[in-house]
């Protein structure tokens, strides 16, 4: 069975789901939203270490993006506070 990685458009939660058939509608485990973006399919035969490394890299990337997002927001507020 294929495993898909999704990102929730409502709360930005990322998670992997095992898809059983095409009729099941995946939902976010955090907010139960079904407004999801399919990111990529992970080969189910991938080794644990490779998978862990990929997840670690993704988490670092997400943290960086979140940090930049906060900074952009602060900058915006700083320049629109008059
Ligand atoms: Zn969500």
In DSSP terms (H or I, runs of 4 or more residues), the helix count works out at: 1
Strand content: 15-25%
What is the radius of gyration?
Answer: 17 Å
CATH architecture of the largest domain: Single Sheet
Mean pLDDT: 79
User: Structurally, how many domains make up the residues?
Assistant: 2
How much helicity do the residues have?
Answer: 25-40%
Question: What is the makeup of the main sheet?
Answer: 3 strands, antiparallel
Uncertain spans, ≥5 residues at pLDDT below 50?
none
Order of helices and strands: EEEH
- Give the beta-strand count: 3
Which CATH first-tier class of the largest domain would you pick? Mainly Beta
Strand-helix topology:
Layout: E1 3-8, E2 14-18, E3 36-42, H1 48-79
Antiparallel strand pairs: 1-2, 1-3
Question: In words, what does this structure look like?
Answer:
With 82 residues, this protein is of the alpha+beta class. It has 2 domains: 1-44, Rubrerythrin, domain 2, CATH 2.20.28; 46-82. Helices cover 39% and strands 22% of the residues. The protein has a 3-stranded antiparallel sheet with strand order 2-1-3, with no helix packed on it. The radius of gyration is 17 Å and the shape is flat. 4% of the residues are buried. The mean pLDDT is 79. The structure holds zinc ion. Zinc ion is lined by residues 8, 10-11, 13, 28, 30-31, 33. The site of zinc ion has 8 residues, from loops.
């Amino acid at each position: 069975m294929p495993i898909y990685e999704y990102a929730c458009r409502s709360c930005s939660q990322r998670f992997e789901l095992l898809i059983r058939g095409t009729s099941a509608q995946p939902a976010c485990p955090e907010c139960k939203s079904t407004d999801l973006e399919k990111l990529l399919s992970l080969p189910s035969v991938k080794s644990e270490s490779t998978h862990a490394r990929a997840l670690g890299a993704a988490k670092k990337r997400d943290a960086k993006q979140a940090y930049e997002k906060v900074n952009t927001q602060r900058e915006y507020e700083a320049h629109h506070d008059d």
